[in-house]
Amino acid sequence: MIGIEDCLSEVMSIPGALDAVLVEPVSGMAVMGSGLPDPARSAAGLTETFRAALEGIALASPEGTVRIDNMIITTETSHHLIKTIEMVFDGPLLICLRLDLERSNLALAQWRLGTITDQLMAH
Fold this sequence. Notes:
By secondary structure, the protein is of the alpha+beta class. It has 3 helices and 5 strands. The radius of gyration is 14 Å and the shape is globular. This is Roadblock/LC7 domain-containing protein. It comes from Planotetraspora phitsanulokensis.
């Protein structure tokens, strides 16, 4: 089991990691960030992106309700891994890890992000 600070530190040790932010998705507030000049701005943008994806997929889903486990967005210079974390007492959180496109291994980073956040969820 690890705490939030250790979680973010381990996430930033993933090869190719540029920055990361942990977000409370209901309010859109940054819980903690690393490597970001403005975590609050990043958190707001991440929350809007996540909500738009959630609403769009829910409209396209026959069930009408969905739960997003993770998302991958690739730009011309980076990968953005967005993962939901179901905390035992505090409700859901989002973590967004931005990876350098050239220096990262997307599959390895996704696996590592999952194992790290699983340790946080057990906390």
